[in-house]
Amino acid sequence: MRxxxxxxxxxxxxxxxxxxxxxxxxxxxxxPGMKVTGRVTSxxxxxxxxDLGTNLDGVIGKAELMEAGVEVQVDDEVxxxxxxxxxxxVQCTTRLGASSEGRAGREAAVSxxxxxxxxxxxxxxxxxxxxxxxxxxxxxxxxxxxxISQIDNSYVEDASVFLGGSYLFRVMRVEEDGRNIVxxxxxxxxxxxxxxxxxxxxxxxxxDTVKGVVTNIRKYGAFxxxxxxxxxxxxxxxxxxxxxxxxxxxxxxxxxxxxxxxxDQAGGKISLSIKSLQADPWESATKVLGEGRVVVGRVTRLQxxxxxxxxxxxxxxxxxxSELGGEKRIAHPREVLSEGQEMDVKILSIDHERKRIALTxxxxxxxxxxxxxxxxxxxxxxxxxxxxxxxxxDLLSRAMKDSDKG
Length: 406
Hints:
alpha+beta; CATH 2.40.50.140
């Protein structure tokens, strides 16, 4: 029994050592400049104490949080930066303040900025003046220079839009006892964008509907920022109706809802769609349109093999080139038609599975028959005390709307 007890005791000691070692490996190494998230454990009169997931408590000034308009309670989470680890306490901050008030003059301000340069802690500053190549910023009571290429994460043509604004900056260089300070806002914005992008790739899935902002427009489509990542909204995905120029339907800065069509994280590509969020006009149109029906269509595209004609909003049919030109043989539809031209067409067939409609040019006799049928419907409607039906196009539009409601 003694051997068994000894064996169990040795196993218990081994397990304890492994657990102890594992617990230490899970504790992150805390270094100045590191960004951490702490859980509020207590709120004192001067300081807020944080659980940083280590054996050391974090401390952040309560006044700093109040100046930033942040009120915290126990169990709230606070994002902050580590300033120093001293005497078993982790001193934290959300950022260095925008003035040197309460500090021991210029020397203390320079020392703080040098610490910020080494640790990467953001410093709050106010843009005071636009100068050649950038802007002058008041930073802890000192004057710093931010190049125009570093004031934003996108191209800035006129830096005066930042005048008077207070922003967070990263200190890039402190030289000549604080007389030469170079800062950057761009690096912070890029880090924020990378963090948002990482979150987006892990939370957004194909098929999701997300909100985005149009950032750029090209002939082939538009780029949309959906939260730190830009996706491409191809022109063919903007509407069921044909869009010739994306600028006709979208503008930079516009907020839109888009569906995520595909995601390629390795290539950093996301395809978006507005069309998939819209009702398919094919279903509504084909409930109203029938084989043998004569309608007024608009020529949308001319190809060597025929002409595409819009017979209902977002629904095109094809007139084969053999159906054009009458008895005269033509080499291209443009010999007898032009894009945008309206014409009477007759529906030859509807392929529901492939979503294709075959058309031909309506003969005068067929147009007359269709008009007579429409007249009969108008007369019948009048007898029933209903209003005017209008044209065949009006009838079709109303029928499509009624079909959608149904």
